[in-house]
Amino acid sequence: MKMWSGRFRQPLDPEFERWQRSFDFDRRLLEHELAGSRAYARALKEAEVLSPNELSSILQGLDEIGAKAKSSPAFLDDPEAEDVHHFVEKQLVALIGDAGRKLHSGRSRNEQIATDLRLYVRTCVEQIRNDLAGLGEILVDRAEKAGDAAMPAYTHLQRAEPVLVAHWLLAYFEMFLRDADRLQDCGKRLNFSPLGAGAVAGTTLPLDRQLIAGALGFATPTANSMDATSDRDFVLEFVNDLSLLALHLSRWAEEMILFSTQEYGFIRLPEAYSTG
């Protein structure tokens, strides 16, 4: 049964139903959907919508779904699941019965996807910043080992002025440092919890939104429910930040290619990282 099917009297065309499914794409949000659902379930219990036993069953069921997804990728091959939200509710009901349906009380898929996306992008920001920190350490280490070694700097592919090899390496350190700072700023702006915003105008349930936000590591709840469910600024900002990072990586790769040619001969690429 569809989560939204209350007012519909005619089934979907089968071909259209296959076309409109997003689970093949948004299954990657599963761990974030489960985390959001755990936090929301605890808030429902505090609002006396769920009993302690129902909360325990829901949390146990959500943990089991997560464990199955990690141990058996085939578990996610569900041709009936419309999206990651439908998949979790469907599996939860199958595991614990009707108590699983109560998890959706006062909640909308609009706020769920907004929350999942924020959690997903935040995780990506943290991972990429960690990777950039590791890359920065390597660049600094190589710069120190280069010592007083010199190389020509170029303008328009013409030799210009002599510089230290360390100076060339640390130019990329500066670029990647700016990339990391931009990602950090993006992380700050997305770190607000939409849960409790409902479909667009909030919920009538007395939910402790601060409790939910804290449980998910958000700084605070979003201030406006309409903005909370519609905002995708942080996704565009994240992609823009990635495009600048990709430009810096592309520049570095191009210089490595140039500097390894016979015309330059500054570096030799190991055969383990070279192809024909």
Short description:
The chain has 276 residues and is mainly alpha-helical. It folds into two domains: 5-105, Fumarase C, Chain B, domain 1 (Orthogonal Bundle); 110-273, Up-down Bundle (Fumarase C, Chain A, domain 2). It has ten helices and four strands.
- Strand percentage lies at 5-15%
CATH level 4 superfamily of the largest domain = Fumarase/aspartase (Central domain)
* Strand order, largest beta sheet: 1-2
Helix/sheet category: mainly alpha
For this structure, the CATH topology of the largest domain is: Fumarase C, Chain A, domain 2
Q: So what's the CATH class of the largest domain? A: Mainly Alpha
Number of H/I helices: 10
Gross morphology: elongated
General description of the model:
With 276 residues, this protein is mainly alpha-helical. It has 2 domains: 5-105, Fumarase C, Chain B, domain 1 (Orthogonal Bundle), CATH 1.10.275.10; 110-273, Fumarase C, Chain A, domain 2 (Up-down Bundle). It contains 10 helices and 4 strands. The protein has helices at residues 14-20, 23-26, 30-46, 52-71, 84-96, 109-146, 165-190, 209-215, 225-230, 233-259; strands spanning 150-155, 158-164, 192-193, 220-221. The strands form 2 sheets. A two-stranded antiparallel ribbon has the order 1-2. A two-stranded parallel sheet has the order 3-4. The longest helix is centred in the middle third of the chain and has 38 residues, at 109-146. The radius of gyration is 25 Å and the shape is elongated. The mean pLDDT is 93.
